[in-house]
Amino acid sequence: MSIEAEIEAHVAAITEAYRETVMGPDARIEGGARLWGQFEDAVAAWRAKPSPKRVLAIIERVNELTVAGLFIKDDSIVKLEYEPRQAGLEGRIDFRLGLDMGKAAHAEVKTVQPQTDDSDENWEKYEERRQHFTADTHVIVRKEWMGAQLFGRSFSARSAFMRYTLEFEKRLEAVQAASPGSGCLIFCGNGIDWHPSQLEDFADFYRTGKHRPDDSFGDMERHHMKENNITLRRNIHSFGCLTRGHSDLQPSRWILPVRGPPIPCA
Fold it and tell me: Does 115 map to a domain?
């Protein structure tokens, strides 16, 4: 089967699995038509001019649909809105959740799909950066075994966690002023380019203000934040993780909230 045929088969399967869920007469989501329309727009753009970048755009929309499906099935969520308008604010946050006990939350979904080549240039970047690894931690990669690509994707994923967090913090602060509620940032991946344990390291740092001793990127991130005068607002209540193979209809892993394992006592 060609790549094009595989994508069309996946689009058909997603349509069967999710269209009625977000668009049907009994759909438990407001704004579902907008969510579905964005998926259709991504598919139409790919059909008009197929490219890897446009495939990634479809993956992003499917991840949003998958998260919406999980929220819809969650009995603790009594009201669900997709990209609700907020008076006086530019831009929107993906989901507003009305929770039981009268509480509310805002959730943003971001797909992290690091694309890094296995090149000599990227291997040189690895050799430059490994001097900043946290003491007594080791990243084991070999140049002849796609080392540049494996490290590059891990590094790029960690950078994306920070970049999307800073963006969401700013937008969340503006939204919370008009519509109080906790904030949740959900990262989606395919389970290969980055592992949930990498998000655990970042989530624990965000929550506690201290990097875990087993966080390979801890010292590097601390140095980067200092050099670039980065200060976190820490107004995000929790992080979520969704892992889904690109052709899967359901996630292989759904973690909310994300937290690392206990740190053993010395």
Answer: yes
